[in-house]
Specification:
- With 116 residues, this protein is α/β, with parallel strands linked by helices.
- It has three helices and five strands, in the order ββαβαβαβ.
- It has a single domain, classed as Rossmann fold (3-Layer(aba) Sandwich).
- A five-stranded mixed sheet has the order 2-5-4-1-3.
């Protein structure tokens, strides 16, 4: 099992059809709890990684890679609720106040036969 942190979820992250559980995370403390045992960042943009780091108080490195999720993997998703202005450099205070929502995607099972 690997825990990932990302700023998006795409069906292309799955290697085949499967069963997912998607939940909303209610607090930053819950995000920290999920990430506490370690995680792999798949956030590919420095500004986004910095915003996430400031919001959760945990360093989140930039890691521009594709991820292939397998059963047991957990993806914590940081989703912006507003579009940031093009080219604007946010202050640290503005980054902490960016409106976002957190989700957790758990891969339960992959494969086409769901009636087992």
């Amino acid at each position: 099992m690997t825990v990932y942190i990302a700023n998006a979820f795409s069906l292309s992250m799955l290697t085949q059809p499967g069963t997912l559980i998607v939940g909303m995370i209610e607090s930053v403390d819950e995000v920290k709890q999920i990430l506490a045992r370690g995680f792999t960042s798949v956030i590919g943009h420095e500004a986004t990684a910095k915003i996430v780091s400031l919001q959760i108080g945990v360093p989140v490195p930039v890691n521009r890679v594709s991820v292939q999720l397998v059963p047991g993997d957990i993806l914590v998703v940081f989703q912006l609720l507003t579009r940031l202005p093009e080219g604007k450099i946010l202050t640290e205070q503005e980054m902490k106040q960016v409106q976002a929502r957190w989700y957790v995607v758990t891969v339960m099972r992959l494969g086409g036969d769901q009636d087992e």
